[in-house]
Specification:
Blueprint: H1 2-33, E1 37-41, H2 45-59, E2 64-68, H3 70-78, E3 85-87, H4 91-99, E4 109-113, E5 116-121, H5 136-140, E6 145-148, H6 154-165, H7 169-172, E7 176-179, H8 182-190, E8 196-200, H9 201-206, E9 210-215, E10 225-230, H10 238-246, H11 249-257, E11 261-262
Parallel strand pairs: 1-2, 1-3, 6-7, 6-8
Antiparallel strand pairs: 3-10, 4-10, 4-11, 5-8, 5-9
Protein name: Molybdenum ABC transporter substrate-binding protein
InterPro entries: ModA, ModA/WtpA
Organism: Methyloceanibacter superfactus
Length: 268
């Protein structure tokens, strides 16, 4: 019996010594992986994934990014969703969360700009010249125009504004295929489900199954600006660190590779 008790005591002692070693070894790895939660406009998917991968390689921190329509993200933030950083596809929705004191205003800045383009499936034979009164309805034929939701989603609002400015909105407003976000609108054209769509230039560049028929005049819609900010509820420094990285030349090159224009650079 004494022998058995001695063996059990020895095993218990060994286990008690091993557990702290295992725990302490795991802690640095967990700390190294900790990064911000980022809410970002769907159109940023390819570019921001590339930027986040570079940031992880440099810092060891991994950003957890949730992509969706800017309008949906703003509403989630308003309803208490946990996140550190918000990157909007327009100024209006950033203003919306700012007015509700949900961002740290000192951290807000304009990051990127974009263009609005008309796209078709890559094998389409359609050709249009985007100008006042251009025959968009005729080009659609019996098909529909793919566009993000025109009442709330930034890409849809920009698109509606452009069509109204060019005097062609009334002819197509009953022929829309409205999608939950701009990437969903892109997929409808990419899969050949609609003959034409309105998306950002960066979206068109991300999909080899579509081609750009033309860009909408910049003065036909409000400027396409992507502001970014740290959320007021953010608990740690990771959000500000990620925002600072977004303004580096390295991140700027990634954004430009993916079809964006960089507005801000350098340290805040």
């Amino acid at each position: 019996m004494n022998v058995i008790k001695s063996v059990r005591s020895a095993m218990a002692l060994a286990l008690s010594l091993a557990v702290p070693l295992i725990t302490s070894a795991a802690q640095p790895a967990l700390a190294a992986d900790k990064g911000p939660t980022v809410f970002a406009a769907a159109s940023l998917k390819n570019a921001l994934d590339a930027v986040a991968a570079d940031w992880k390689e440099q810092t060891g921190h991994e950003a957890v990014i949730s992509f969706a329509a800017t309008s949906a993200l703003a509403k989630q933030i308003e309803q208490g969703a946990e996140a550190d950083v918000f990157i909007s596809a327009d100024l209006a929705w950033m203003d919306y969360v700012a007015e509700r004191q949900l961002i740290d205003p000192k951290t807000r800045f304009d990051l990127l700009a974009n263009e609005l383009v008309l796209i078709a499936p890559k094998d389409s034979q359609l050709a249009v010249d985007i100008a006042p009164g251009f025959p968009l309805t005729k080009a659609l034929g019996d098909g529909r125009l793919s566009i993000a939701g025109v009442d709330a989603v930034p890409a849809g609002k920009y698109g509606k504004a452009a069509l109204e400015s060019l005097g062609v909105w009334d002819g197509v407003k009953g022929k829309l295929a409205q999608a939950e976000n701009v990437r969903a609108a892109l997929r409808l054209v990419s899969r050949g489900e609609t003959p034409l769509g309105i998306v950002y230039a960066s979206d068109a560049k991300a999909d080899p199954n579509v081609k750009v028929l033309g860009a909408f005049p910049p003065d036909s819609h409000p400027p396409i600006v992507y502001p970014a900010a740290r959320l007021a509820r953010a608990k740690g420094p990771e959000g500000e660190a990620f925002l600072a990285y977004l303004r580096t030349p390295e991140a700027g090159r990634r954004f430009e590779e993916n079809g964006f224009s960089v507005i801000g650079s350098g340290a805040p």
